[in-house]
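Hi R.,

Here's the input for the zinc ion complex you asked about:
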Amino acid sequence: MQMERRPVALRNDGALWFYFLGCGGAFSKRLYQTNLLVVKGPDHLLVDCGTRGPEALSAAGISTTEIAHFLPTHSHADHVGGVEELSLTARYVARHKPKMYLSEEYQAVLWERTLRGGCEFNERFDGKGLTFEDYWEPVRPTPVPGMPRGGATFNVGNLNVKTFRTRHYPQQAESWRDAMYSVGIIVDERILYTGDTQYDEGMLAELDSRYAFESIFHDVQFHPGGIHASLEQLEALPADIRVKTYLVHYGDAWEEHENEVARLGFRGLTRQQTVYSAP
Ligand SMILES: [Zn+2]
Ligand SMILES: [Zn+2]
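And here is the predicted structure with zinc ion in place:
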C-alpha cells in the first residue's frame, strides 16, 4: 500500500483506503486508540470506536453523525467505548439509524454489557426503554464455507469484508474457540487487519495461503506477556509475511522501537492519521 499524505474523507475516487484514526494501545496518551476507517469509492466502514474514537474522528474532520456503517471487533473500551456516543448522536442529532455488522450473539453482549446503561432509558414507552434496534440496524455476516476461524462475510456497497475470530482474551485462552468474542478483518480479499490478538502461531500463514494478502496490519506490544502479540514473538513470523506487515496498537514510547521493527524485517509501524492506499 502507498502512504499518502492527504486528508481522509468518507468517499474517494475508488482506491481502497485504510486510515487508522489512531494506532495506539488502550492506554496511549500521545496516540489515539487503534480504530480504523476503510473507504472505497462511495462506501465506508468504521472498524471500532473506542473511548477516544469520537475525538479521533473529529481530529480527522469527520462527525460521528456521518458514520453509516460500523463494525465492532470486541468489547474492550478502546474499541467500543465511543459506541454510546455514536448511538446517541445518530438517534438524536442526525436522526438516522446506521448499520452495525455483528452476530446476534455478540449484539446481545454489546448491548447488555456495554451500551444498555447509557442508551436504554433516554426514552420510555409503556414503561419500556429503548433497545439496540432503536439505535442501529443490525446486519448479520454470513458464514463462509471452508473459511477457517468461524469466517463470515458481508458487503458494504462495493467493499467486501470478511471476519475471522482471534485469540485475544483471556490470556489463558488456548485457541480462538475458548476466547471471548474478538475478530480481525479481511477487506476485498487483499488486506488483513488482525484487530487485537495474542501471537497466534499459524493464524496468518493459514489465512495468507488462502488469500495471498498484499498487506497485513498486525497487533503488537513492545513488552512480553498479556493479551497482545509481542514484537519478540512476532519475530517468528515467516520473512515473506513480515515484509508485508505493518504493526499497530502500540505504546507511547514507539520511537525507541522503530529501528528494531525495521531490523526484524517488518514493513514498519503503522502511522495514525495517514491514508494507506491500494489502487
Ligand atoms: Zn485494543
Ligand atoms: Zn482488546
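One thing worth noting: Residues 26, 34, 76, 78-79, 196, 249 surround zinc ion (ligand 1) (CB under 6 Å).

Cheers,
M.
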